[in-house]
Amino acid sequence: MRRTAPLHLLKLVLVILTGTLARASDLTVVLTGNTADLKNADDLFPIIEQHFRASKDTVVWVLNGDVFPESYSDQQIVAWNAKDNQMLDDFLGLYIILNQGDRDWDHSGKKGLKKIRSLEKLLAESAHPRFEVFLRQGCPGPWTISFPTLQIVVINSQWWNHPFEKPIPSSDVCTIADTGNFIEELEGILDEVNNKNVLILSHFPLKSLGNYGGRFAASSYLFPPLVGNALVAFHQHVGTSKDITNAQFDVFRQRLSNVLHDYSSLIFASGHEQN
């Protein structure tokens, strides 16, 4: 059953990095991505606190992949998590959601699965009930979180984008580890939502107007001579693991786009793009 309910989220505004803020009557959602670009991941905490103090709503803060700077040690991540937990204890209406991105998977490298599972283990050492960590052994999802006016669906887009080891059906690590079952589960979730908006979280976008989406300034086609045009064409039609068009991700991207076109009252929120 497809839904035709009107969209009730009232506004979207730029907040931080690749962040936007969506506000309903009693719920504020702040979307941030690529916080790994911060020199100090702790710099995020006073920003969250400022937004929470300025709002009387419940605040859901989303870290939508590529979370920690590459320079961060295990000890720094554990210390970050302790500060995160203290902030959640101080602000009872605050929820934090963490999703995974390609940099969390070692830049789509061979050690990606090992790195994401190590990160999950570190964050699980001191878990907080309002800090939802969607690393889940590197499985694709989908996972859900429900609020009175909003259903959040979390997707691990890196599972499709990753070119090396990842959970597969025969490993029995994930309840779902193939595209067909994933799409069926997602459609079931969306069909069952009544009288709510839906927010889908995915680090990788389905489309992008930036460089990762194959959009470049005119000068990129010209310089360096001859090579510039070839490089742009490569990113537009072949791509690397960072590009939206690439052999690993493209089939799923198109299939998911077709599914989502059947639903309304839905926002698809991503990170990744830096241009």
Task: Bin the helical content.
Answer: 25-40%
Mean pLDDT equals 81
Please, how many domains? 1
CATH class (first level) name:
Alpha Beta
Question: What is the CATH architecture term?
Answer: 4-Layer Sandwich
In terms of quaternary structure, the protein is single chain
CATH topology: Purple Acid Phosphatase, chain A, domain 2
Contiguous helical run count: 8
Which regions have little confidence, pLDDT < 50, spanning 5+ residues? 3-19
Gyration radius over CA: 19 Å
Number of strands: 10
Q: What is the spatial order of strands in the main beta sheet? A: 1-2-3-4-5-6
Structural class: alpha/beta
| Beta-strand percent range | 15-25%
How far the N terminus sits from the C terminus, by CA atoms, comes to 38 Å
Overall 3D shape: globular
SSE order in H/E notation? Answer: EEEHEHEHEEEHHEHHHE
Q: How is the main sheet built?
A: 6 strands, mixed
Structural overview:
With 275 residues, the chain is α/β, with parallel strands linked by helices. It has one domain (12-208, 244-269): Purple Acid Phosphatase, chain A, domain 2 (4-Layer Sandwich). It contains eight helices and ten strands. It has helices at residues 44-53, 74-90, 112-124, 158-161, 179-192, 218-222, 227-237, 250-260; strands spanning 12-14, 20-23, 27-32, 58-64, 94-99, 131-133, 143-147, 150-155, 197-202, 266-269. The strands form two sheets. Strands 1-2-3-4-5-6 form a six-stranded mixed sheet, covered by helices on one side. Strands 7-8-9-10 form a four-stranded mixed sheet, with no helix packed on it. A hairpin with a 3-residue loop joins strand 2 (20-23) and strand 3 (27-32). The protein is globular, with a radius of gyration of 19 Å. 35% of the residues are buried.
